[in-house]
Design goal:
Pfam family, one: HTH_3
CATH topology of the largest domain: 434 Repressor (Amino-terminal Domain)
Protein name: Helix-turn-helix domain protein
Distance between the termini: 32 Å
Shape: elongated
GO molecular function: DNA binding
CATH class of the largest domain: Mainly Alpha
């Protein structure tokens, strides 16, 4: 990985963190990497973020490792909706159709997209 690629990864992490309104403290709490280390990553003082941390960072930043690496331009991660169908299937004894479950999933995606726009 060359210097420009590394700068791109750092910028994507920093920009996404700021977009989501996450502080260094939030990043420390989620990853166990200290606030000062995050600051040194973002200023380029530390030049390597372990590949094992990239997946964790991507999840925190609600994106994908591919986006952070510059292989993908879509910064939003796919929303994990696997639990939606389970919840809907057991909600107060009501039976939901597949169409109902799809509506619930779409509503959740809508609410999440509004949250992102407010930040």
């Amino acid at each position: 990985m060359n210097e420009n690629e590394l700068k791109q990864i750092i910028e994507r992490i920093k920009n996404r963190r700021i977009e989501l309104g996450l502080s260094y403290q939030d990043m420390q709490d989620a990853t166990g990497i200290s606030k000062s280390t995050w600051q040194r990553y973002e200023t380029g003082f530390i030049k390597n973020l372990g590949i094992d941390k990239l997946d964790i960072v991507a999840k925190i930043l609600q994106t994908t490792p591919s986006y952070l690496m510059g292989w993908d331009t879509d910064k939003k991660a796919e929303i994990d909706t696997s639990g939606i169908h389970t919840i809907a299937a057991h909600f107060e004894g009501e039976d939901f159709t597949e169409a109902d479950k799809e509506d619930i999933e779409n509503f959740i995606k809508f609410v999440l997209s509004k949250k992102d726009k407010k930040k």
